[in-house]
Amino acid sequence: MFRCRLVLPILLFGLSVSIATAQPIKGKVKNKEPEKKVQGPAELDSYFEDLKVVRQGGLKGEGPDILEYFRKRTLKQPDPKQIAALVKDLGDEDFPTREKAFQVLAEMGTSALAGLKEGENDPSVEVRKRIAELKLRIDTKAEPTLQAAAARVLAKLKPEGTADGLMSFLPFASDPMVIDEI
In terms of C-beta density within 10 A (0-12 exposed, 13-18 middle, 19 or more buried), how is residue 30 classed? Predict the structure, then answer.
């Protein structure tokens, strides 16, 4: 019978055992304490950079202030029929009707994006052009850098209501970077 002289130690639940002999390995096994996470300079720099971005965005940089910023951008889901009617109005022959529909959709912001997506294939060139302009305007107003920095600052400060506030805002975040940070 072939014998293998190689003994492989395994650390399993703090007990060292030899596979070949199923005997404990002699000697003391040190139990390592979990390493404490120490904030390095890079993490602190990131926080202060994020705080700087948040303050440049017109916020105080305090937890309740930042939560209010996200609450203001958390919209109610509009009626899909209303959005479909407004998208149809974007191609109306009456110019004031087109402009009014454009303004209402622009004010809805990211909550109107799903309805706008359906109108991208509209046969009317006017509708497609206005939808492209609306999407660009909504994406520009999104402030992804500010939103990502604000989410990181909230994660650091952890004021009461942070999780609920960010989770409510999440469907209205249009930038993947912001979604990842939340």
Answer: exposed
pTM for the model stands at 0.56
Q: Tokens for 180, please give them.
A: 């990842």
- pLDDT number for residue 12: 38
HSE, CB side, 13 Å, CA atoms: give it for residue 118.
11
CB 58 within 8 A of CB 87: no
Residue 167: Cβ within 10 Å count? 11
The Cα–Cα gap between 180 and 170 comes to 10
């006017």: which residue's tokens?
A: 126
Is 11 exposed, middle or buried, given 0-12, 13-18 or 19+ CB atoms closer than 10 A? exposed
* Cα 94 to Cα 98: distance, rounded to the nearest angstrom: 7
Element (DSSP H or E) covering residue 150: helix 144-157
Q: List the beta bridge partners of residue 9.
A: 18
Strand partners, 16: 11
Per-residue pLDDT band for 172 (boundaries 50, 70, 90) equals confident
Question: Using the 8-state DSSP alphabet, how is residue 112 labeled?
Answer: G
Q: Per the structure block, which two tokens stand in for 82?
A: 């209303």
- Is 69 within 8 Å of 54 (Cβ atoms)? no
Q: What phi-psi label fits residue 158: left (phi over 0), alpha (psi between -120 and 50 degrees) or beta?
A: left
